Amino acid sequence: MKKTAAAKKAASAHRGASAKKAAAPAKRAASAKKAASAEKATPVKKAAAARKATSSRKATSSKKAAPAKKAASVKKAPAAKKVVVAPKKAAARVKAAPAKAVVHPPGDESRTALVRRARRINRELAEVFPYAHPELDFENPFQLVVATVLSAQTTDLRVNQTTPSLFAKYPTPEDLAAANPEEVEEILRPCGFFRAKTKSVIGLSKALVEEFGGEVPGRLEDLVKLPGVGRKTAFVVLGNAFGRPGITVDTHFQRLVRRWQWTGETDPDKIEAAVGALFPKSDWTDLSHHVIWHGRRICHARKPACGACPIAPLCPAYGEGETDPEKAKKLLKYEKGGFPGQRLKPPQAYLDAGGRPAPPLGAG
User: Fold this and answer.
1) What pLDDT, on the 0 to 100 scale, is given for residue 18?
2) Which residue of the set 232, 281, 330, 345 is catalytic?
3) Which has the least CB within 10 A, 215, 237, 264, 318?
C-alpha cells in the first residue's frame, strides 16, 4: 500500500515536471511574441513621446518668448526716445555754431584760443608782407575815394591804368562835378560798368562840393552819404588817407576770414564786427592789407597754394588747395616788376637801397 502511494506520488510529480517542461516552450513563445509586439510598439511610443516632448518644448518656449517680447518692448521704448532726442540736440549745435561768431567761435575752439590764433596769423602775415599797402595809386583823399569806387568789379591794376587820364583832366572835385558824363564814360570804359561808375564819381564830386566845401570828410557817417561809397570804401579812405583804423571787407577778406574760421558770418557788416572784436583797433588797417595781399597772392579762391603758405600750420582749411610744395609754388602770383602788384613780387623788390622796406607809392 505504501509503495503504491509513493509510486502514485512520484508519478504525479513526474507528470507535473513533464507538464512544466512541455509548458515552458509555450511560455517562451508567448513571451517572445509579447516582446516582439512590445518592440514593434516601441517606435510608435517613442514617436508619440517625441511629439509630446516637442509640443511641450514649443509651449515652454512660447511661454518664455512672451516675457522676452515684453522685455524687448520695454527695452526698445527708451531707445525710441533717444532716437527722437538725439537729432534735436545735433540740430541745436549746428544752428548755434554760426549764429554769432563773436560769441560762439566756429568749431570746438575756445574764444581765447581763437583770438590767439587770429593774432598770430596777422603777425605771420606782417612778416611775409611788411610792405603791404593799398594797391591803388593816389596822391590825396579825393583821388583815393574815386579810385576805390572805380575798383568795384575790377582789379586795382586796371583802375591804376585808368585814373591817370581821369585825374589829369579832372584834378579836383569841382572839375569832375562839372564834367561831361559822356567824356567821363569814355575814360572809364576799361573799368567796366562805366556808366554806373561815371554817375557815382560825378555824383560824389558834386556832393563834396555842395556839402563839404570840396574836401573829403574824415568821418564814417559823412563818407557813407556820398554816392557809390559804402562802409568798405569809407574804411579804405579813413585808414589810408586819414590814418583812422578801419577794416576793409572786400571779397578776399571775406573768403579768408571764413576759411580761417574767424567767423561764420556772410554779411560784410557782421564780418567787420566779428573780426574787429578779435584785434585791437590799432591793428585794423594793417590787418586788412595783410589779409587782402595774402588772398591775392597765395590763398586764391579756386586753387589756394597750401603747400607754399606761411600760415599753413594755423589754417583749419589746409588741404583745400595744392599741398605739394613744388606744385604750390607754381600757383603763387608773381609780378616781373613795377607797381602796383596784382602778383606777388619777391620781398627785395620792395626794399630801398639801404635794405629797408620802401614806402608805399601814393602814400605821400
Assistant:
1) 55
2) 232
3) 215
Asked whether residue 190 is domain-assigned, the answer is: yes
Q: In the chain, what is the straight-line distance between the N-terminal and C-terminal CA atoms, in Å?
A: 176
Position 27 scores a pLDDT of 56
Nearest Cα to 235, choosing from 164, 148, 343?
148
CATH code at 224?
1.10.340.30
The pLDDT score that the predictor gives to residue 109 is 87
DSSP-derived secondary structure for 83-104: HHHHHHHHHHHHHHTTT-TTTS
Residue at 53 is within a domain: no
232 in active site: yes
Please report the DSSP string for 242-302 in residue order.
S--------HHHHHHHHHTTS----SHHHHHHHHHTTS-GGGHHHHHHHHHHHHHHTS-SS
Q: What single string gives the DSSP state of each residue in 181-196?
A: HHHHHHHHGGGSSHHH
Residue among 119, 133, 117 nearest 280 (CA)? 119
Closest Cα partner for 228 from 213, 207, 245, 244? Answer: 207
CA angle 175, 179, 182 (to 5 degrees): 155
Instruction: Pick 6 or 210 by higher pLDDT.
Output: 210
Determine which one of 250, 286, 345, 352 is catalytic: 250
**What are the cell numbers at 6?**
509513493
The parent domain of residue 248 ranges over 121-350
Task: For residue 303, tell me if it sits in a domain.
Answer: yes
Assign 3-state DSSP to the chain and report helix, strand, coil percentages, each to 5: 65, 0, 35
pLDDT in tens, 238-283: 999 999 999 999 999 999 999 999 999 999 999 999 999 999 999 9
Residue 323, in any domain of the structure? yes
Report the domain count for the chain. Answer: 1
Other Cβ atoms less than 10 A from the Cβ of 300: the count is 16
Output the known binding site for [4Fe-4S] cluster.
299, 306, 309, 315
